Amino acid sequence: MELTYLQHGFISSPIGYPTPRSSIIIPRNPKYKSVFPSIRRKNLCFASSGSTDTLVSGSRKEEPHVIVESKKTQHFVDLKAWMHSKGLPTCKVDLKEKSSHDQKLIPIHYVVASQDLEVGDVAFAVPNSLVVTLERVLGNETIAEMLTTNKLSELACLALYLMYEKKQGKKSFWYPYIRELDRQRGRGQLAVESPLLWSEVELDYLTGSPTKAEVLEREEGIKREYDELDTVWFMAGSLFKQYPYDLPTEAFPFEIFKQAFVAVQSCVVHLQKVNLARRFALVPLGPPLLAYKSNCKAMLTAVEGAVQLVVDRPYKTGDPIVVWCGPQPNSKLLLNYGFVDEDNPYDRILVEASLNTEDPQYQDKRMVAQRNNKLSVQVFQVKAGKEKEAVFDMLPYLRLGYVTDPSEMQSVISSQGPICPVSPCMERAVLDQLSSYFKARLARYPTTISEDEAMLADINLNPKKRVATQLVKLEKKMLNACHQTTVEMINQLPDLSVSPCPAPYAPQIR
What we know:
With 510 residues, the chain is an alpha+beta fold. The chain has two domains: 31-337, set domain protein methyltransferase, domain 1 (Alpha-Beta Complex); 348-509, set domain protein methyltransferase, domain 2 (Alpha-Beta Complex). It has helices at residues 31-35, 45-48, 79-85, 134-138, 141-150, 154-167, 175-184, 200-203, 210-227, 229-235, 248-251, 254-267, 330-337, 362-371, 387-402, 406-414, 424-443, 449-456, 463-491; strands spanning 54-57, 66-69, 93-98, 108-113, 122-127, 132-133, 268-270, 280-282, 291-292, 300-303, 306-310, 322-323, 348-354, 377-383, 508-509. The chain has a three-stranded antiparallel sheet, with no helix packed on it. The chain has a three-stranded antiparallel sheet with strand order 6-8-7. Strands 14-13-15 form a three-stranded antiparallel sheet, covered by helices on one side. Helix 17 packs antiparallel against helix 19 and helix 18 (449-456) packs antiparallel against helix 19. The protein is elongated. This is Rubisco LSMT substrate-binding domain-containing protein. Keywords: Methyltransferase, S-adenosyl-L-methionine, Transferase.
């Protein structure tokens, strides 16, 4: 997300819409360190670059970062003019500028229609010579597949490449593009960075949301990637031959790499129907200069010799161009791109249920669950607007967990469907457990939905707090709808005086 944080090198991470997959970590071979005794800490990026793009202060344990553009670098690199000079054909878009929520941050650019567009028009076609992919970076598809299949994600490799490129300053072919990524700082539609770059205080805006744990987990994954960066250096030495003694972990501190990774994450595009070494691409004029919209169907696509954008809706001159970000829930939109879409048809929360492994009939129940396309630890998706359907989908699985009589279990095994014998007390127990779960999960949030709405009505609300509040409000709406469904079902039971069945091996819900 951020290329700007690279103090004297480059800083900056599935559209890019798929979430970066976990890398398979291999142990580092200590013998390599002894091969290069001349490597010293003085090779750190902030000691090896000739110019400074930003001044960074603060850390997660302190106040939020304060970013100030160096006066001698306060010049605008015309990205579009550079692209035209390098082969970009005439296109139908321009770049405009909008201010950031933080006056300490320079404005960001965004792509607009330079003329009226109709559905099906090609807004632009960026030639492959201006697209950064692992095939271009490594020059070898086999090495690219080997690295990303067994060791590192594509995002880590792309971030590392751009970090080394930035060390060259204006000598780098990609200098204008890197400067644009620095300007953007991986900010989303509200000019907000991914929570991966928030302070601890700012992360507390997400209290109660599983997204907070996802942020910390993703950060740990990035750290694991960082620890394996030297693998790329050793396996693809030809790529970094201009820096024969600059091992990545010696040249770039972790915080710099994380910022670079997050920047790449915010703008990488997932191309379809291309070889594996080209599937993740950085496309100038693509995101984050393009806005994401969940109900948009326009995508950057690979065509012969280029990556193009065909618009899916009419635009007037000056209108911002939008693209689809894939079927991602709001938690991923915030984590990857720094924004929340309140009209997101793909928004969802997850409910994990599991059969009790202490249950004497666990193996039989596991077999029945698998027969009905469920697992012993099953994740249910609660989609926005379809909460009732999600609750109905959970019930057969939970009822199975409540079966205690061996003869009833044999009846379930011999049946052809997911139907369990349902007694009034079992149904009450299942619904009570579900209701209690949704209430407990709602109680984790420090605010109510009405309080969230009151905060969002404040036009001066901090943008990071705004997107976080939007996220938790939408999560609470889904949880509340699930809870209301279970309460309604309890109220429809024929005899409310029936006590819940005892359940020594009740399934667990998380």
